[in-house]
Design a protein that fits this description.
The complex is a heterodimer of chains A (320) and B (289). Chain A is 72% helix and 1% strand. Chain A is mostly helical. Chain A has a single domain, classed as MetI-like fold, CATH 1.10.3720. Chain A has a two-stranded antiparallel ribbon. In chain A, strand 1 (72-73) and strand 2 (80-81) form a beta hairpin. In chain A, helix 8 (136-155) packs across helix 9 (163-188) and helix 13 packs antiparallel against helix 14 (282-311). The model of chain B has no long low-confidence stretch (mean pLDDT 88). Chain B contains eleven helices and two strands; from the N terminus they run ααββααααααααα. Helix content of chain B is 74%, strand content 1%. Chain B has a two-stranded antiparallel sheet. Classes of the chains: A mainly alpha (320), B mainly alpha (289). Chains A and B meet through helix 3, helix 4, helix 6, helix 7 and helix 8 of A and helix 1, helix 3, helix 4, helix 5 and helix 6 of B.
């Protein structure tokens, strides 16, 4: 800093130096405010470019036929660009995986927050965080190479690549999200509430069910929704394990046999077909349009989670 | 009035806590089982040639050196993209932002950016970097895409680290006549640096393991050269695993190599994450202030 070396003269030049440093402070401040907005800029660019590349589809396919069309045959002549089977595929694996992930994730959070001794907790918590950092392609690989052959053999199925296998692997990705957000929510409940309950003679379990969990419910639901959003957007697992058939499984007729059907969720379709489609064709535009659908579905999930966590935020003991 | 006896209430509690323990056990068991299985299956493939040689005989022999190098380059590139931007955003959030509409909007942007599916980042990178900026399928395009993907992670970790610096530090510096920027640069950032780096390592781990964002922006199935410029396409470990497991012509012959590649990837990723997690828990415990 040049100015610091001139310290003796600085007192005489105070006015000028002050103004100069003031101007620089304002500049620095402006730079940081602008860079603070960078994430917003990226979000805007994502929307812009998905639209730019995806909008071309709707010159040839009507939006209604795109969303509700039951046939996805992009390479046939004439091609079909109906993504309803892809949407139902995504919804099915997301729902089934959350049926697995919610009990386990919330259970893990309850364990970490209420049951575990501090020493055990110190070991188990990093394990859950570690699960979060397992790359999705590794889980996809395990589902494909290890689980699928076992499933095929034990259950005598034509293929082990199906909804239930993909859902189990997706659940492993969603559990850490659900567990860590739920755990934070349990901790955020003011301590005097459970303490009052215990003092009145309730057992720790009764306190947990009637006081702590209701107090943390908004946080837990936020975690569940973010976990589902993660499962919905996850690509590699569904690409490698869900089987890849663009069909709508017969849910009621074959319950619960539909779990062993093959599906082709939205992210899997994009990842599998982008490499094989020529740039700028209808199929290319259609894949970007699918990206748009996926983007807005997950955005909806995330906004819902944000809204839930704000709307039902615990504001001290009084709101309980 | 609770009419159940204390004994039955206690029994109920034991049962419930037992179920909770079981849930945790299943989660940890799944993680442990998967890692154990991958280590056992993969360790046989790991040797010096595997780590340092190029793939040979249509990938059935040789090694994965180009993929290891590619993943390291991509990850470093992602960090170079995300760290300056993320740090600047975090400084804004923790030091300059005032409550208001803009702050709410920025936070909403960051939260939702964190929720954008990785394959959508891949499409975005393809449209913006590969096509619009004419970068082609390249190391540069992939690094920038991955950098934007981990940006929310880096912002979150950096902000947490900056906020953990006590207000007292800032007040002391300001009261000595330092300006706000001087205070941030000389007092707040150095104190927060370990936390910022730990968070960034977690981000790096994520970048190293992602596949979908690099599929259309950077990764190639097969190349013998190491990248000599950012405009070349590269091999990468996650993509290599995907290709060998699904599209290879000798899927069964390459099975041991697939497990070996998976083991190298998880060693890289989990090693980094574990380091970051351990350093962070130590930092949180031994705060000097």
């Amino acid at each position: 800093m040049a100015r610091r070396k001139e310290a003796p003269e600085a007192s005489r030049l105070k006015c000028g130096a002050g103004a100069r440093s003031h101007a620089r402070e304002a500049r620095v401040r402006a730079i940081f405010i602008v860079s603070g907005c960078f994430s917003l800029v990226v979000m805007a660019l994502i929307v812009l470019f998905l639209f730019r590349e995806g909008i071309g589809l709707f010159g040839e396919v009507r939006p209604w036929d795109f969303i509700f069309g039951k046939l996805w045959y992009p390479t046939y002549d004439p091609p079909d660009f109906g993504i309803l089977p892809l949407i139902t595929g995504s919804l099915l694996v997301t729902l089934v995986s959350s049926l697995i992930a919610v009990p386990l994730g919330v259970g893990a959070a309850l364990y970490l927050a209420e049951v575990a001794s501090p020493r055990v907790r110190e070991w188990v918590k990093p394990a859950v965080e570690l699960l979060a950092s397992l790359p999705s392609v590794v889980l996809g690989f395990v589902g494909m190479v290890v689980i699928a052959p076992l499933m095929q053999e034990w259950l005598d199925l034509p293929t082990g690549l199906n909804i239930i296998n993909a859902s189990m692997m997706l659940a492993l990705m969603a559990i850490p999200t659900i567990a860590s957000i739920s755990e934070d929510a349990l901790y955020a409940v003011p301590r005097d509430l459970p303490e009052a309950s215990l003092a009145l003679g309730a057992t720790p379990w009764e306190t947990l069910v009637k006081v702590t969990i209701p107090g943390a419910l908004s946080g837990i639901s936020t975690g569940v929704i973010l976990g589902m959003s993660r499962a919905m957007g996850e690509t590699m697992v569904v690409l490698m394990v869900a089987g890849g058939a663009a069909q709508i499984p017969d849910l009621l007729g074959s319950f619960p046999g539909f779990l062993f059907e093959s599906v082709r969720p939205l992210p899997a379709t994009i990842a599998a077909e982008m490499g094989e489609t020529p740039y700028g064709g209808t199929h290319y535009h259609a894949l970007f349009a699918i990206g748009m659908v996926l983007f807005f579905i997950t955005l909806g999930f995330n906004l819902l989670a944000t809204w839930l966590s704000k709307r039902f935020q615990q504001k001290g003991a009084a709101t309980l | 009035m609770n009419t159940r006896t204390l004994a039955s209430r206690k029994a109920r509690q034991s049962l419930a806590f037992g179920i909770i323990r079981l849930a945790m056990l299943m989660v940890v068991g799944a993680l442990g089982g998967i890692i154990l299985l991958l280590v056992v299956q993969g360790i046989g493939a790991i040797n010096w040639t595997f780590l340092t040689d190029v793939p040979r005989d249509s990938m059935t022999k040789g090694g994965i050196f180009p993929a290891i190098v590619g993943t390291i380059y991509l990850t470093l590139g992602a960090l170079l993209t995300a760290l300056p931007l993320g740090l600047a955003s975090a400084v804004y959030l923790s030091e300059y932002a005032t409550q208001g509409r803009l702050l709410g909007l920025v936070r909403l942007g960051i939260q939702n950016l964190a929720g954008v599916p990785s394959v959508v980042f891949g499409l975005f990178g393809l449209a913006l970097f590969v096509v619009h900026f004419h970068m082609g399928v390249s190391l540069a395009a992939g690094s920038l895409t991955l950098g934007l993907l981990i940006l929310p992670t880096v912002i979150g970790a950096s902000e947490e680290a900056l906020r953990a610096v006590p207000a007292m530090f800032r007040e002391a510096s300001l009261s000595l006549g330092a300006t706000r920027w001087q205070t941030i640069r000389k007092v707040v950032l150095p104190a927060a640096m370990p936390g910022i780096l730990t968070g960034s390592i977690l981000g790096i781990g994520r970048a190293a393991g992602e596949t979908a964002p690099i599929m259309f922006t950077a990764a190639t199935f097969y190349t013998l050269q190491l990248p000599s410029s950012p405009w070349q396409e590269v091999m990468a470990l996650p993509y290599h695993i995907y290709v060998l497991a699904t599209a290879g012509t000798h899927i069964d012959q390459t099975r041991p190599l697939q497990f070996g590649t998976v083991l190298v990837l998880i060693t890289l990723v989990l090693g980094m994450s574990l380091t970051a997690i351990l350093i962070r828990s130590r930092l949180r415990k031994s705060k000097k202030w």
